[in-house]
Each structure stands twice: as structure tokens, then as C-alpha cells.
From TrEMBL:
<dbReference type="Pfam" id="PF00941">
    <property type="entry name" value="FAD_binding_5"/>
</dbReference>
<dbReference type="InterPro" id="IPR036318">
    <property type="entry name" value="FAD-bd_PCMH-like_sf"/>
</dbReference>
<feature type="domain" description="FAD-binding PCMH-type">
    <location>
        <begin position="1"/>
        <end position="174"/>
    </location>
</feature>
<dbReference type="GO" id="GO:0071949">
    <property type="term" value="F:FAD binding"/>
</dbReference>
<dbReference type="InterPro" id="IPR016166">
    <property type="entry name" value="FAD-bd_PCMH"/>
</dbReference>
<protein>
    <submittedName>
        <fullName>FAD-binding molybdopterin dehydrogenase</fullName>
    </submittedName>
</protein>
<dbReference type="InterPro" id="IPR002346">
    <property type="entry name" value="Mopterin_DH_FAD-bd"/>
</dbReference>
<dbReference type="InterPro" id="IPR016169">
    <property type="entry name" value="FAD-bd_PCMH_sub2"/>
</dbReference>
<dbReference type="InterPro" id="IPR051312">
    <property type="entry name" value="Diverse_Substr_Oxidored"/>
</dbReference>
<dbReference type="GO" id="GO:0016491">
    <property type="term" value="F:oxidoreductase activity"/>
</dbReference>
Length: 272
């Protein structure tokens, strides 16, 4: 879609790109959402592509993902054989409601910063205990837990001119046992709920997304029984559950409880 209110595009931004920030600006990453709808509040785009933040770096300590890494490149990654949970990278890419054409342009950082409940890169990074490096307009950086970044539907902690620079996933999370459950109204539809669980020995880390306005991560030091797990989900506030044509809050709460118990049973069978 033509953005007919945009009068300028910064093709060669400084690093940090937010140093040029002013009202009416937007950062341009893949642009797959930005050009899909009217953006009448925008006057200028700051193109992040020339900064080259697109690397995927595999190290002993984990995986570093540049914010401009495309979904296509993430999906093509061949991880170390001792990272079983790295299969969640591909699973999350496949959860996109998007064609291969979108995969070629859409970026990991763009999906995270859109901060939609069904953003699969949010699911992936929260479940795998990632941290985000944010770069401020003055060049300073801060590191935040992925679980603390999204605050609501299309809302996050970024300040004006602040940008997501990279994502770091620790190797310890990638070496965990894992499973997931995802529900959609149609086979290739938007996620109504997307739950990921990881386990090291006898603990449980359960991440609920898509059905909630922001990610919910529940940590148990040991495997809970069915009643304890159901109670934790039941205690989540009513306003947390997302409401849209893909599912009502009651439906999503029901799915969360059902899939969480299914996951608990699966992990418990494996432990025995």
C-alpha cells in the first residue's frame, strides 16, 4: 500500500538510528506490516536495512539473532545437534500467518516490536528465555528479559527512538526438553493460543501466548500436580485473556488449561 503521508525516507541512518527521531517517524525493517495498512500518522521512515543487523551467530553461550534477520534465514538455520529445543525456531516460523514472500522480507525484530499477541517470534524468544538488547537514541543500550518487553496488544516498553538491536537465546534453554501446543480456527490461520513448555530435569517452564494480551511465563521448580497447574492458570486475571474473532477469553482460558494439563501429562510420562 502507498503511504501517501510519508514525505521522506532516511536511507542511510546513523547508528544509533534513533538519534534522528522526531514526531511522525517510524523505523522500517521488512515493512511487511507497515505497507499493509494505512499509516496516516507517519511522515518519515528510517530504513534500518543499511545497518546490517541481520546476522545469526551460533556460539557456545547460545544463539545471537540480529533484529533484522529475516524469517527465511532463521528458518534455514542448522543448529548444533545438542540444542534439541532449537526446533522451536522452525516451529515458530511456521506459526506465521504469512506466505513465503513475507518470510523473505519480514524480520525477527519487526515481529517482536509489533507486539501483537499472536507474534510467533515473541512466543519463541519468551519460551527460550531470551534477552533483548535495546539501543537508545543516545547510543546507550539496555538488556531486558523477553518476557518483560511486550506489555499489551501492540504495546511494549520501547521509548521514542529506541530500537531493538539483537536477541540472545542462551544455550542452556536450547538444550532443554521441550514441547508445544497450538490452536487455530483454520489449518493455516492465526494462532488462537500458542503454548510452549521446556524442562530441565524435573522443573517446568510454561509459556502462554496468542491467547493473552502479553506473554505469560510460569516457572515451577518441580513438576506440579494437575490441581496446582490448573489453579495457576485459573488465577490469571480476566482482562489478560485476549478477545478477537479468533477466540473469546473464555475459550482461550479453556484451551490454556486443557493444553497445559496435556503437556504436564506428557512430561510426567517421560520422567517416569
Amino acid at each position: 500500500m502507498d503511504l501517501n503521508t510519508v514525505t521522506d525516507v532516511v536511507r542511510h541512518p546513523h547508528d544509533p538510528p534513533g538519534a534522528q527521531w522526531r514526531a511522525g517517524d517510524a523505523f522500517l525493517a521488512g515493512g511487511t506490516w507497515l505497507f499493509s495498512d494505512q499509516q496516516s500518522h507517519l511522515r518519515r521512515l528510517i530504513d534500518l536495512a543499511p545497518l546490517g543487523w541481520d546476522a545469526l551467530t551460533v556460539e557456545e553461550t547460545g544463539l545471537e539473532i540480529g533484529a533484522m534477520c529475516t524469517i527465511r534465514d532463521l528458518y534455514a538455520l542448522t543448529p548444533p545437534s545438542d540444542w534439541p529445543a532449537a526446533s522451536l525456531l522452525g516451529t515458530s516460523c511456521e506459526a506465521f500467518l504469512a506466505s513465503f514472500k513475507v518470510w523473505n522480507s519480514a524480520t525477527v525484530g519487526g515481529n517482536i516490536c509489533m507486539s501483537l499477541p499472536a507474534g510467533p517470534m515473541i512466543t519463541m524468544t519468551v519460551a527460550l528465555e531470551a534477552t533483548y538488547t535495546l539501543r537508545a537514541p543516545d547510543g546507550s543500550e539496555r538488556t531486558v528479559d523477553a518476557a518483560d518487553f511486550v506489555t499489551g496488544n501492540n504495546a511494549n516498553i520501547l521509548s521514542p527512538g529506541e530500537v531493538l538491536r539483537k536477541v540472545d537465546i542462551p544455550a542452556s534453554a536450547l538444550r532443554k526438553r521441550h514441547t508445544h501446543r497450538r490452536f487455530t480456527l483454520t489449518r493455516l490461520g492465526r494462532s488462537t493460543i500458542f503454548i510452549v513448555a521446556t524442562q530441565h530435569r524435573h522443573d517446568l517452564l510454561l509459556t502462554i501466548t496468542a491467547g493473552t494480551t502479553h506473554p505469560v511465563r510460569m516457572r515451577f521448580d518441580s513438576m506440579p500436580d494437575a490441581d496446582a497447574l490448573a489453579q495457576r492458570i485459573d488465577e490469571l486475571p480476566e482482562e489478560l485473556w485476549f478477545d478477537d474473532p479468533n477466540g473469546s477469553p473464555d475459550h482461550r482460558r479453556h484451551l490454556a488449561a486443557h493444553y497445559a494439563e496435556d503437556i504436564r501429562a506428557e512430561f510426567s510420562r517421560g520422567a517416569s
